Fold this sequence. Notes:
- By secondary structure, this protein is α/β, with parallel strands linked by helices.
- Helix content is 25%, strand content 12%.
- The chain is built from 7 helices and 8 strands; from the N terminus they run ββββααααβαββαβα.
- Strand 1 and strand 2 (28-29) form a beta hairpin.
- The protein is globular, with a radius of gyration of 23 Å.
- It starts with 21 loop residues before the first strand and ends in an 8-residue tail after the last helix.
- Its EC number is 2.1.1.225.
- One of its GO terms (molecular function) is tRNA 2'-O-methyltransferase activity.
Amino acid sequence: MAASAPTPHGTGFPTEGRCGYYVEKKKRFCRMVVAAGKRFCGEHAGAAEEENARKRILCPLDPKHTVYEDQLAKHLKKCNSRERPKPDFFIQDINAGLKDETEIPEQLVPISFLSEEQMGNLIKKLRKASEGLNSTLKDQIMSHPALHDALNDPKNGDSATKHLKQQASILGNIEKLKLLGPRRCFVEFGAGKGKLSHWVDIALKDAEKVHFILVEKVTTRFKVDGKHRKKNSVFERLQIDIQHLCLNKIPLLSKEKLPVVGIGKHLCGVATGVIGDIMWAKNISGL
Length: 287
């Protein structure tokens, strides 16, 4: 956690009711809500003079947050990163590929560790394996009217504009493929805050019988899917690694039997490959 002194000069004042700790890395005050009569949130309480006697340590379950050392035992029982009972749709390594010992190298090493000769041999193998494949990808940068107002908001910074353009392009491509419609379930992989599903829902307006399943392996703050209360849309969030996700055991999918549309914006290359395998599996209700 990169932060500086609680109240540096020339930075203004924190918002009323919010933490007074200045986060140097983000060049702003912490935005967490503080308890009545407190100046700092629980995460930064160690900065307050009256709290200096108590020591905060990294949570052993998730080092992204801290906890008072004398309250560790109590915290571990309610921490969002604690081990929980596995749901029916959790099947260990169901999407991890084959585990035949003859196919697993004795030792996996990063590509950067390979010698020049080993790298050359690897390149030859890849070229041979990809012979005859159409490897030329055509850019399909599109947009969608659902994001018109958001894209033209003068308050947008460079980062917000970039993400909005990406989301608009994804929606445009979904519509071009005739996948943007009623009576289906959208599964957003690597959902994060759920903004892609949010815009899909906006684009569908009052389409009937639309379900959203947002898959994310970590706890996420500032989620937007919780704000949706439309009669025709149902949002469900699953905290699970896609490596262990069995789609056809998700109650909503097995009950409704709706066609499934897989969407995603924040997936890495490996995860994208895994999603391809999941979506094309024969036991899925529909695609």
